[in-house]
């Protein structure tokens, strides 16, 4: 990382501008989303699914800078929260996945209503674009692969996704994160691993772009390479863009040199 470029890990702790409003999509305390709305223009809703290895110690706050930057570019943005894993937490299989399905399904109407109430541009009708980072990238890819036909997103941008759960478990990423999510290893929890697999079983026919840095140590790029190699046999609309000398957190940091690639990829998803 050049000396002049800020430390991308700062994005995890630097306070972001506050959202315009917070909407609720269900009864649990985590069934909420921060909403940021553009000042002018209209476009698709972008639903951001945050990472943090599905753990309760990480929440949507660290994607606030990304969401604010996208709103400045004219997107309506909703940062989806969901139940996560950890002591006393209620996430994991299947609760985390149920929350993503419920939240993505409810947010278009909720954000449109919030925009009207605030007198701000209402996002285009139709399904949202999903942007997911790390574990959120896994959830975005999983949602696209398993969504019912009437709820398929308009596109997916996965940033350094944990796209291969069995390999992530073998590598023991973040000290047992996949085991905490699914309740055990692949042999003991084979059914859960199969159900949580983000690989599509049929052609999705929706544009999907994966961005992954070659120097990512949190989520090795090999996971994305393997996912695209296997998914490409089913769906030829999945593209992997490898970013040289880019790590894990630059992809959610609007100050980074990699940010331009993120916005270009997002624009490429618009039909």
Structure description:
Residues 35-228 form the BD-FAE-like domain. GO terms for molecular function: hydrolase activity. Helices cover 31% and strands 15% of the residues. Strand 7 (208-213), helix 7 (222-231) and strand 8 form a beta-alpha-beta unit. The longest helix is centred in the middle third of the chain and has 24 residues, at 95-118. The N and C termini lie far apart (34 Å). It has a single domain (8-268), classed as Alpha/Beta hydrolase fold, catalytic domain (Rossmann fold, 3-Layer(aba) Sandwich). With 271 residues, the chain is α/β, with parallel strands linked by helices. It has eight helices and eight strands. An eight-stranded mixed beta sheet has the order 1-2-4-3-5-6-7-8, with helices on both faces.
Mean pLDDT: 94
Termini separation comes to 34 Å
Strand order of the largest sheet: 1-2-4-3-5-6-7-8
Order of helices and strands: EEEHEHEHEHHHEHEH
Largest sheet composition: 8 strands, mixed
What number of structural domains do the residues give? Answer: 1
CATH C-level: Alpha Beta
With helices defined by DSSP (H or I, 4 residues minimum), what is the helix count? Answer: 8
The count of DSSP E runs of length 2 or more, i.e. the number of strands, is 8
Assigned CATH superfamily: Alpha/Beta hydrolase fold, catalytic domain
Structure class:
alpha/beta
CATH architecture: 3-Layer(aba) Sandwich
Strand content: 15-25%
* Gyration radius, in Å: 17 Å
Protein name: Prolyl oligopeptidase family protein
InterPro entries: AB_hydrolase_fold, BD-FAE-like_dom, GDXG_lipolytic_enzyme
Keywords: Hydrolase
Pfam families: BD-FAE
């Amino acid at each position: 990382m050049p000396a002049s470029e800020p430390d991308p890990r700062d994005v995890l702790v630097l306070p972001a501008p506050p959202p315009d409003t917070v909407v609720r999509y269900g009864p649990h305390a985590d069934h909420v989303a921060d909403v940021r709305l553009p000042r002018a223009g209209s476009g698709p809703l972008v639903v951001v699914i945050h990472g943090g290895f599905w753990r309760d110690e990480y929440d949507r706050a660290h994607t606030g800078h990304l969401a604010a930057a996208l709103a400045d570019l004219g997107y309506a943005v909703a940062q989806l929260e969901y139940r996560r894993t950890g002591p006393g937490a209620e996430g994991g299989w299947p609760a985390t996945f149920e929350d993503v399905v419920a939240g993505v399904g409810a947010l278009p109407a909720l954000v449109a209503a919030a925009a009207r109430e605030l007198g701000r541009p209402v996002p285009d009708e139709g399904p949202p674009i999903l942007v997911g980072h790390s574990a959120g990238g896994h959830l975005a890819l999983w949602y696209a692969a398993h969504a019912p036909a009437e709820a398929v997103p308009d596109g997916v941008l996965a940033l350094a996704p944990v796209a291969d759960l069995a390999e992530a478990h073998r590598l023991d990423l973040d000290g047992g994160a996949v085991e905490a999510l699914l309740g055990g290893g692949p042999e003991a929890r084979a059914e859960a691993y199969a159900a949580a697999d983000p690989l599509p079983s049929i052609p999705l026919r929706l544009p999907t772009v994966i961005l992954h840095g070659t120097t990512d140590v949190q989520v090795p790029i090999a996971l994305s390479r393997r996912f695209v190699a296997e998914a490409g046999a089913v769906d030829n609309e999945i593209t992997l863009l490898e970013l040289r000398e880019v790590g894990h957190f630059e992809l959610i940091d609007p100050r980074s040199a990699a940010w331009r690639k993120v916005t270009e990829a997002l624009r490429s998803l618009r039909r």
